[in-house]
Amino acid sequence: QVQLVESGGGLVQAGGSLRLSCSASGSIVSINTMGWYRQAPGKQRELVAAFTSGGTTDYADSVKGRFIISRDNAKNTVYLQMNSLKPEDTAVYYCQVVRLLLSKKYIYWGQGTQVTVSS
Fold first, then answer.
1. Which of 30, 50, 85, 101 could make an SS bond with 117 (beta carbons 3.0 to 4.6 A apart)?
2. In sequence order, what are the residues at sequence separation of 6 or more whose Cβ sits closer than 8 angstroms to the Cβ of residue 93?
């Protein structure tokens, strides 16, 4: 099992910044990918940014140039720096970890953290 604890959400005005953190603990070996998703009311959960299995980064088009994903391997933590926030970025943000073990994929989600951007 992998436990994910997120922090850093909140209320911010448009144009402002927030940084989200996600710390992983438990069975953290064999982590394949780690990233952030978000879900706005009435919408499907969507990828925001992630580290791929090849170690590169992947971003949603809507956040490119504004959000930066980073990680601290020593702390088993992934961050999402969100700049130039827009009201349409308002959503619950979830951390996701995927483990690949014996050719099986295990997906873990954090509890979610609310980000609200006021206009």
1. 85
2. 6, 9, 20, 36, 37, 38, 48, 80, 112, 113, 114, 115
Q: What are the two backbone dihedrals, phi and then psi, of residue 64, each rounded to the nearest 5 degrees? A: -60, 135
| pLDDT tens digits along 83-119 | 999 999 999 999 999 998 888 999 999 999 999 999 9
Spatial distance between the Cα atoms of 53 and 57, rounded to a whole number of angstroms = 9
Per the CB < 8 A criterion, the answer to whether 43 and 49 are in contact is no
Residue type at position 27: S
The C-alpha atoms of residue 35 and residue 50 are separated, in whole angstroms, by 4
**Phi/psi at 61 (5° precision):** -55, -35
